[in-house]
């Protein structure tokens, strides 16, 4: 997770701890507050130590339970304030690509299962270096920042070592558009398609493709990752969202499962990849 994001969560957690210590009726222990709220004790600890993002409902309940309801507005403003900038690509890229890649790489390292959906670009964990270079450069050009593109490419490639560690499993879905997008020269895309074809059958990877001709039950949009049912990372043009609350994780997991119903695997996925590759006009 980005440094800004984590620092903001920890600062909010410290403020919540202050409220617990300064209750009008006397200081509460974490367990006493949890009992008052009907929460598991671990939730109080996670919020205070910046290991979980509070919801507005959590903040209102906390303010009420500590006898300081008038402070809810302050807490809500803190949450809205850090959420608005921690997710900003421009803010994150002010320190170049390295901190962003390190944050996500750390989360991937501690994950056992990862579910990925990509609608317009090949998933990062199966990108070739040259394809990754073109994708990263396009984002850098758009946002007008980040000069350390080669460092970012190396970090992305190193991250793929995760695929070859025992007990890891990548479940990746891609729309056919991701295979056809010429974000790079045709020859680079051809090599990337060859890489995808080679991934099919690898025991740590489950690769599904949704063909253009498939009937879909939900709009194929908004790429995202679900890491171990504990964190969702979703991307938009202006921002990257890190969501760790149970409701959002459940929603994104449901979206992934719904999309999976339209995907093809194995030899059928090979056929889609081969069809796309044949259509490329190579010099």
The 3D shape can be described as elongated
Q: Provide the helix percentage.
A: 40-55%
Order of helices and strands: HHHHHHHEHHEHHEEEEHH
Quickly count the helices: 13
Whole-number total of structural domains: 2
- Do you know the CATH architecture of the largest domain? 2-Layer Sandwich
Radius of gyration: 22 Å
**CATH topological fold name of the largest domain:** Endonuclease, Chain A
Percent in strands: 5-15%
Task: Describe the sheet with the most strands.
Answer: 6 strands, mixed
- CATH class call of the largest domain: Alpha Beta
* Oligomeric form: single chain
Describe what this molecule looks like in 3D.
The chain is of the alpha/beta class and 283 residues long. It has 2 domains: 3-86, lambda repressor-like DNA-binding domains (434 Repressor (Amino-terminal Domain), Orthogonal Bundle); 96-279, Endonuclease, Chain A. It contains 13 helices and 6 strands. It has a 6-stranded mixed beta sheet. 30% of the residues are buried.
């Amino acid at each position: 997770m980005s440094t800004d994001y984590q620092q903001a969560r920890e600062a909010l957690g410290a403020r919540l701890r202050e409220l617990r210590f300064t209750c009008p009726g006397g200081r509460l222990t974490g367990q006493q507050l949890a009992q008052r709220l009907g929460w598991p004790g671990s939730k109080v600890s996670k919020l205070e130590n910046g290991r979980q993002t509070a919801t507005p409902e959590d903040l209102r309940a906390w303010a009420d339970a500590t006898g300081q309801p008038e402070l809810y507005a302050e807490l809500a403003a803190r949450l809205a304030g850090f959420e608005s900038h921690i997710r900003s690509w421009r803010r994150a890229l002010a320190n170049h690509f390295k901190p962003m890649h390190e944050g996500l790489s750390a989360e991937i390292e501690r994950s056992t299962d990862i579910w990925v959906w990509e609608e317009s670009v090949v998933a990062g964990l199966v990108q070739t270096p040259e394809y990754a270079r073109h994708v990263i450069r396009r984002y850098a050009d758009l946002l007008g920042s980040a000069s350390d593109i080669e460092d970012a490419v190396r970090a992305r490639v190193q991250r793929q070592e995760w695929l070859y560690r025992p007990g890891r499993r990548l479940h990746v879905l891609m729309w056919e558009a991701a295979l056809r997008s010429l974000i790079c020269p045709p020859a680079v895309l051809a090599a990337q398609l060859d890489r995808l074809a080679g991934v099919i059958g690898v025991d740590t990877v489950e690769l599904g493709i949704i063909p253009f001709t498939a009937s879909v039950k939900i709009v194929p949009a908004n790429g995202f990752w679900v890491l171990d049912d504990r964190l969702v990372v979703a991307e938009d043009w202006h921002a990257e969202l890190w969501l760790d609350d149970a409701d959002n994780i459940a929603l994104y997991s449901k979206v992934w499962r719904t999309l999976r119903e339209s995907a093809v695997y194995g030899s059928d996925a090979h056929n889609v990849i081969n069809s796309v590759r044949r259509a490329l006009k190579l010099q």
